[in-house]
Amino acid sequence: MRKPTQKRSIERVGQIFDATRTLILDENIEAVTTTRVAELADVPVGSVYQFFTDRDDLLTSLARSQAGILAKACVAALDECPPDIFEHWPSAMRHVMESYLSALGRLPAGIEVNRYQTQHMPVFEGPNGLESPLGGLFRDVMARTGLQFPPEREVVILTTLLATVSVLVDIALLQSSIEQRDAYISECFGLAQLYVDKSVVDPCK
Q: What is the pLDDT of residue 164?
């Protein structure tokens, strides 16, 4: 994606993203083509190619944009946490994940875009190298709770945890009831906690 800098370009990309979400909602993600998005956004198809190389670049860019929106919502949730919630890291992560799911539910076609991201771009280049969209948030929670991992295992541990969280949250989003969703989220953190408890550095040693 060519990043827009001027106000008009930013608005044009917003139109294209909105049209893409509408097309996904009205039909499905397979229906997305640059031509149909351009028609729905009421812009020349050349305007789509001005910012995106092809359909895949458009969908990937939409997923990245959505990941940024969700990350901001979760950071805000972390900042609003009472200090004592960080005494037990699964509580903090659950609070973040509930904020993540809530923000996701408010985005048109958010779940479908999230599923595309999970399937086609589970990691991307972030400030700490290759990360999932939740990578920075997980690191933030770990830092605030004081958890420390052996340096030689940190990347593997975080990657495994993030994969577990991403997959189980995606499964949770498919559930038809809040009870089923909560059950999968609880399973997610139960597995993650077992893994962390075996890997964390004990500061008392």
A: 60
For residue 157, the enclosing domain spans 82-199
Both structure tokens of 187: 């399973």
Alpha carbons 96 and 189: distance in angstroms, whole number: 12
- Is residue 44 included in any domain, yes or no? no
Overall number of domains in the chain: 1
- Mean pLDDT per 10-residue section of the chain, whose length is 205 residues: 79 94 94 95 93 93 86 79 71 73 84 78 50 60 67 64 61 64 66 61 47
Q: What is the pLDDT of residue 77?
A: 79
Phi-psi region of 50 (alpha: psi -120 to 50; beta: other; left: phi over 0): alpha
Residue 189 is assigned to a structural domain of this protein: yes
**Global pTM value:** 0.70
In a domain, 148, yes or no: yes
pLDDT, position 68: 81
Phi–psi pair at 131, nearest 5 degrees:
-140, 160
* Closest to 112 (Cα-Cα) out of 173, 37, 176: 173
The kind and range of the H/E element at 62 are helix 55-80
**What pairs with residue 129 in β-bridges?**
126
Domain-located, residue 36: no
| Location of structure tokens 């040693």 | 205
How far is it, in rounded angstroms, from Cα 148 to Cα 41? 48
